[in-house]
Design brief:
280 residues, alpha+beta, Fumarylacetoacetate hydrolase, domain 2, 2 domains, 7 helices, 31% strand, globular, binds zinc ion
């Protein structure tokens, strides 16, 4: 199943360009707000398997984030070995760095993002996971059982804020308004071609800047959820930006950062594509 947020209403896709409205089809049992659906995820997916209703057009410009108001929104750092190397940090062994992608930074898949004035904004193409069941101290090997689905994201990062000061400010540097785009829709794990091996590509003004595969993760999705759940109580609707492959801009020489007027396109195999344009 593919689930999207169209003008603030949950819809189930029937094709790449058509969908039906969840609240209308369920006569109010689920929706219209997509966020509450994750609290009822098992009942919802059981119902959705046989649901249908009148088709509506899925217009790109009306799509919002797949989890607009998660209780917790997390980012994972240093989860691809090549990115660890280019960043100059040590390879994480027990746990990767974890930081908040604060809720106020979350936007839909095709927004115009205002760059931080005087800042150094960089791209990070990432697989984003949405939690579908409460997960606390879960068993080894069961992480994917707690996933509602996957979507495409950018962990946009303002490096000056992130790296200045006596200790890194990962949470704030990556949480300016619009800096956590996600979409275009949620894909349930059963519909992914290979849930642990998806190609990720990022392009800036048509030039490929990042390529990788989620099979290169140091902590794969299932392991991440298992490890996070030993500390946190992950809640339905929670969002995890799972880390970026190599090819970010700030470690290049000379440093390469996003400029006003540029377009960033991020694609994940089996899910879809998001696109941001930037203003100064
Ligand atoms: Zn990141």
């Amino acid at each position: 199943m593919r689930l999207a947020n169209l003008d603030g209403r949950a819809v189930i896709l029937t094709t790449d360009t058509t969908a039906f409205d969840v609240a209308d089809a369920s006569e109010g049992r689920f929706g219209p707000d997509i966020q509450g659906i994750y609290d009822d995820w098992d009942d919802f997916t059981a119902w959705a398997g046989t649901a249908s209703s009148a088709e509506i057009a899925l217009e790109q410009g009306r799509l919002g984030p797949v989890s607009p108001r998660p209780l917790q929104s997390l980012g994972i750092g240093l989860n691809y070995a090549d990115h660890v190397t280019e960043s100059g940090f040590g390879r994480p062994e027990k746990l990767p760095p974890v930081f908040p992608k604060f809720q106020s930074s979350i936007v839909g898949p095709y927004e115009t993002v205002a760059l931080v004035p005087g800042g150094r904004t960089d791209w990070e193409a990432e697989l984003v996971i949405v939690i579908g069941r409460t997960a606390h101290s879960i068993a080894e090997g069961s992480g994917w059982d707690y996933v509602a689905g996957a979507t495409v994201g950018q962990d946009l990062s303002e490096r000056a804020t992130q790296l200045e000061g006596p200790a890194p400010q990962f949470g704030l540097g990556k949480s300016f308004p619009g800096y956590s785009p996600q979409g275009p829709w949620l894909v349930t794990p059963d519909e992914l071609p290979d849930r642990d091996d998806l190609g990720i590509t990022g392009t800036l003004d048509g030039e490929v800047v990042q390529t990788g595969r989620t099979s290169q993760m140091i902590f794969p999705v299932g392991v991440l959820i298992e490890k996070l759940s030993q500390i946190l109580v992950l809640q339905p609707g929670d969002v995890i930006y799972t880390g970026t492959p190599s090819g970010v801009g700030f470690t290049r020489e000379p440093e390469w950062l996003i400029q006003p007027g540029q377009t960033l396109v991020t694609t994940i195999e089996g899910i879809g594509t998001i696109r941001q344009t930037f203003t100064g």
